[in-house]
Design a protein that fits this description.
This protein has helices at 11-53, 74-91, 114-133, 213-219, 224-235, and strands at residues 94-103, 109-110, 138-139, 160-171, 178-179, 196-209, 239-258, 264-282, 290-308, 311-314, 318-321, 326-328, 331-334, 344-347, 353-355, 360-363, 372-382, 385-395, 401-404, 408-411, 416-418, 421-424, 440-444, 450-452, 457-460, 464-472, 478-485. The chain has 486 residues and is α+β, with helices and mostly antiparallel strands. The chain folds into 3 domains: 74-308, no CATH class; 311-395, Immunoglobulin-like, CATH 2.60.40.1080; 401-485, Immunoglobulin-like (Sandwich). Strands 1, 2, 3, 4, 5, 6, 7, 8 and 9 form a 9-stranded antiparallel β-sheet that branches. The chain has a 4-stranded mixed β-sheet with strand order 11-18-17-14, with no helix packed on it. Strand 17 (372-382) and strand 18 form a beta hairpin. The N and C termini lie far apart (99 Å).
Length: 486
């Protein structure tokens, strides 16, 4: 049997080794903690810097003019309204006609006790329902003749007091806050850039007519007398009315038209009326007693024509895809029994994008330095006519981040300095892939203080402060530099 010599470690040596290991561990803990704190601090500062640099995207407003210019005179307005009504009759969209009667509760007044006013207010809702329901609602199908149900405007240019058309609005480029009027700086988000002008899809007209009893009688059915007869049975169990008078206080016609197609979306005849009467209410002053008082109220009548036009509507009209990526476009068929009609999908360039018959779009590979572009179209045929809608698809590696090298700059008059801009394909500032479009466009808010050329070279013109900023040509990301000229 072989001899095996085992040398047992010295107890003192083992103790010394353990002490060295303990000292090493004690030194490692603060080093590791210090490194982690440093990483956190650097990340935090980097994140804050990125956050401060991200100013949002500022795409330009696309202002597309309507098929027909806004009428400027009463004669032009009448011609335009008659034209869109004639177009509606000829093309036979689906129509819904409804008559509405509303009492203004706040306008109810009486010289009698409060209980009388409370009773009249209580009666307002059932009276509204009774009168509104007394006029039959009308619905027509697509392709059905609407000429017997649609009122052609029975007024002339001489009957018009005034008219307005609303389709222009203004929106903050930073936060999207909207305004009907121009705004120089946004109070909501603090942006010092003026609101951008935008156009809505529809013209919204409001036509104020002269307050003429004969005109009211021509435009409105039922008449005020018929309305009061309908209201009376609702009130009779509670009160008897006498000496009833009703005066027309306002006549308005409103209509909305799709600016791109001149298709009538809605036509509303609106009448304001102020009525008064002597009222006798039983049992308000005690058993067997009665109360007599005068009362008054304002109410409105509206005949509303709403139209639905056959159409194909996609949920997206612009789509950007990275090479090889996929997305779905959904399509809505506006017609009777839409599921009965098959949708046909096509791509204008299968090398850029392909589309299947469920609307799934797949991007191909980029073959050059420019984005790929194609149009995907969905269509269906209804009542012998084909309806379609399209989506413009762009294939590219998108810009998601932008930064210029300085955010404050001081120059003496006549001095120059060149700013540089960096774009990236990741919103954290990393260029995981190079964006397809890497160019930017430079702007200044005040050329009398500082100008900037296409290369980012800033020239100080005169003392003052201006903002020089760059917009990425893809994505319209903005990064700004405050320039002070001394």
């Amino acid at each position: 049997m072989a001899d095996v010599n085992v040398t047992m470690p010295d107890k003192a040596a083992l103790q010394q080794q353990e002490e060295k290991l303990e000292k090493k561990n004690k030194l490692m803990y603060p080093i590791v903690i210090s490194v982690l704190i440093l990483i956190f601090a650097v990340g935090f500062i980097y994140g804050i810097t990125l956050l401060l640099n991200l100013e949002g995207t500022f795409p330009p407003a696309v202002l597309t003019e309507g098929k027909t210019a806004v009428p400027e005179s009463s004669e032009e307005l009448i011609a335009y309204l008659n034209g869109v009504v004639d177009n509606t009759v000829a093309k036979k969209p689906a129509l819904h006609r409804e008559w509405k009667f509303r009492v203004d509760d706040d306008s109810i007044e009486t010289d009698g006790p409060d209980a009388l006013k409370d009773t009249l207010r209580f009666l307002a809702d059932p009276a509204e329902d009774a009168v509104s329901d007394s006029v039959e609602k009308i619905d027509t199908a697509y392709g059905e003749d609407v000429s017997d149900f649609l009122w052609k405007p029975a007024f002339t240019a001489a009957d018009i007091e005034s008219f307005t058309c609303h389709y222009i609005y203004y929106k903050c480029k930073s936060c999207g806050e909207e305004s009907a009027e121009p705004v120089e700086a946004c109070e909501v988000c603090g942006s010092d850039f003026p609101y951008q002008m935008h156009y809505r899809d529809d013209y919204s007209f409001t036509v104020t007519l002269k307050n003429d009893a004969g005109l009211a009688a021509r435009l409105f059915t039922p008449g005020t007398d018929e309305i009061l007869k309908t209201v009376q049975p609702e009130i009779d169990p509670f009160a008897a009315l006498s000496d009833v008078t009703a005066d027309v206080t306002g006549l308005t016609v409103r209509f909305r038209v799709n600016r791109a197609t001149d298709e009538l979306k809605e036509l509303v005849y609106h009448k304001d009326v102020s009525a008064s009467a002597a009222a006798t209410l039983n049992e308000l002053s005690g058993p067997g007693g009665f109360t007599q008082a005068t009362c008054s109220a304002d109410f409105t009548e509206e005949t509303v024509f709403s139209f639905s036009w056959p159409a194909m509507e996609l949920n997206k009209h612009e789509l950007t895809l990275a090479p090889g990526k996929k997305d779905q476009i959904t399509a809505e068929r506006i017609c009777d029994d839409p599921l009965q009609y098959e949708i046909t999908w096509t791509s204008s360039d299968d090398n850029v994008v392909t589309v299947d018959q469920k609307g799934y779009v797949k991007a191909g590979k980029l073959t050059g330095s420019e984005p790929g572009k194609a149009t995907v179209t969905a269509s269906f045929t209804f009542n012998g006519k084909t309806y379609s809608d399209s989506c413009d698809v762009t294939v590219k590696v998108s810009v998601e981040y932008m930064q210029i090298n300085k955010h404050k700059l001081k120059l003496s008059t006549g001095g120059t300095e060149t700013l540089t801009a960096r774009v990236a394909s990741d919103n954290k500032g990393f260029a995981l892939k190079k964006p397809t479009v890497q160019t930017v466009t430079w702007y200044t808010t005040d050329e009398s203080v500082a100008t900037v050329d296409e290369n980012g070279t800033v020239t100080a013109v005169a003392p003052g402060t201006a903002t020089v900023y760059a917009l990425s040509d893809d994505g319209y990301y903005r990064s700004s530099c405050e320039v002070t000229v001394e």
